[in-house]
Specification:
By secondary structure, the chain is mainly beta. Helix content is 5%, strand content 62%. The longest helix is centred in the N-terminal third of the chain and has 5 residues.
């Protein structure tokens, strides 16, 4: 899947392609939702079910670490992306090695 995003304020063009890592379907990836997207910074992450040992990492489009959050258990999380407007990636990893990666736009 290819996504093209144009940030008119900074005149940036970001191309993001998602390719499956293996032939297996990642069910967790399809369950995790982030909203609203685009966001003003306040973001809700819905993991679909209660999960133990959740680590959420937020990086910007250059790969710079913005924040890391650890939860003993979580299903619905509230995050705030502190940073300039642009594209951010949210990586969610659970104790049982389920992983989801989401793209979020901050306006």
């Amino acid at each position: 899947i290819g996504h093209f995003i144009t940030n008119q304020n900074d005149l940036e063009l970001v191309c993001f392609y998602q390719y499956p890592i293996s032939g297996l379907t990642n069910v967790f990836q399809h369950l995790v939702k982030a909203y609203p997207n685009p966001t003003d910074g306040d973001l809700t992450l819905d993991l679909g079910n209660l999960h133990e040992g959740v680590v959420v990492t937020v990086t910007d489009v250059t790969g710079k670490l913005i924040s890391t959050h650890q939860y003993s258990s979580a299903e619905l999380l509230q995050l705030n992306i502190n940073g300039r407007n642009g594209v951010y990636f949210i990586d969610v990893l659970t104790n049982d090695n389920q992983r989801a990666k989401l793209r979020v736009i901050k306006k």
